[in-house]
Specification:
The protein has one domain. It is built from nine helices and no strands. The protein has helices spanning 4-10, 31-39, 53-72, 76-88, 93-109, 116-160, 162-171, 175-221, 230-301. α6 runs antiparallel to α8 (175-221). 23% of the residues are buried.
């Protein structure tokens, strides 16, 4: 997603997120601060992007809960608490991720970080997470598109030409073949429904991601000036580059969904036509059976 220069920024091992970004603040703690910190969690800092404040606070809470759960282990009570926490979450994971990126840039720009290198390390991981989401979703869309295209191409064969259509109608005279067709249609309908459901969920994620990335891009525009040191300027340039790539990638996913939706609708139409022909063949077969029975009865009577 980035050229060779920017890719260097994203390399690095995974990291264990801090309990709170406020730990990277350069503000000194006194004895009173440490005493208060031992009694309760540190306050969540003010986020530079107002629209991200609530999501940012929830992301900090998520990190705190994850840390506590890791200490408690995988007990049944811990699992129940995680499930309860999942239900209580109000903000989308991509918005929370982007809020963390914006706050990290804020710390670097305003020289509030205790350690610039630590903040950059965390930003690398966040960039990797966003890249991973877009890459995986793109791969899922491409695989779904390929699968649906192949199914559509295969099922269209008996409908696209008159000779194939006539041969197909002839094969439908067999009750066993009709049952095979209906069973196959049910399987394809299941695939269609699952694909449509997965696509709708993915598009919700994409929409949330686009909105968050757009807010981040606007925030970054206001930070062109005021950077101290060439290293931080390169970090800013790399993040800006990645934001542009994310926006393009997310828009591309929306475009891919349009083509996938069209083919899904076409496939549903083909399935409907095959079922219609199967029904006609079945009714003809029943009618022929009735006539045959009636004929035999009349012969016996005479």
């Amino acid at each position: 997603m980035a050229n060779q220069h920017e890719k260097k920024f994203k390399r690095g091992r995974g990291y264990t997120p801090p309990l709170s970004p406020s730990l990277h603040s350069s503000r000194r703690e006194g004895p009173r601060d440490r005493g208060r910190a031992s009694a309760s969690a540190p306050p969540v800092p003010r986020h530079p992007v107002l629209s991200m404040q609530a999501a940012f606070e929830e992301s900090i809470c998520d990190l705190q809960v994850e840390a506590l759960n890791s200490e408690a282990g995988s007990s049944a009570s811990g699992s129940r608490k995680r499930q309860q926490r999942d239900k209580e979450r109000k903000h989308h994971r991509l918005l929370k991720l982007v809020s963390q990126i914006a706050f990290g840039i804020h710390l670097l720009h305003d020289r509030l970080a205790k350690s610039d290198s630590e903040v950059v390390r965390i930003l690398r991981s966040h960039v990797k997470d966003m890249d991973g989401f877009i890459s995986k979703t793109t791969r899922d869309f491409d695989l779904a598109k390929s699968d649906i295209s192949q199914r559509l191409k295969h099922l269209r064969i008996p409908l696209d030409s008159e000779p194939a259509s006539v041969a197909f109608d002839g094969m439908l005279e067999s009750r066993e073949f009709r049952l095979q067709i209906l069973e196959g249609n049910e399987n394809v309908e299941y695939v269609v429904e699952r694909t449509m459901g997965a696509m709708k969920e993915a598009l919700k994620d994409v929409a949330e991601g686009l909105a968050a990335v757009d807010d981040l891009a606007k925030y970054l525009l206001g930070l062109k000036e005021g950077w101290k040191g060439s290293n931080l300027v390169r970090v800013y340039a790399a993040i800006t580059f990645n934001v542009e790539q994310w926006f393009r990638g997310l828009v591309s996913l929306q475009t891919k969904s349009i083509g996938l939706k069209e083919e899904l609708e076409q496939l549903k139409g083909v399935l409907g036509e095959i079922e219609r022909r199967t029904g006609i063949a079945s009714r003809k077969n029943k009618a022929c059976g009735v006539h045959d029975i009636s004929g035999r009865m009349m012969t016996n009577v005479s």
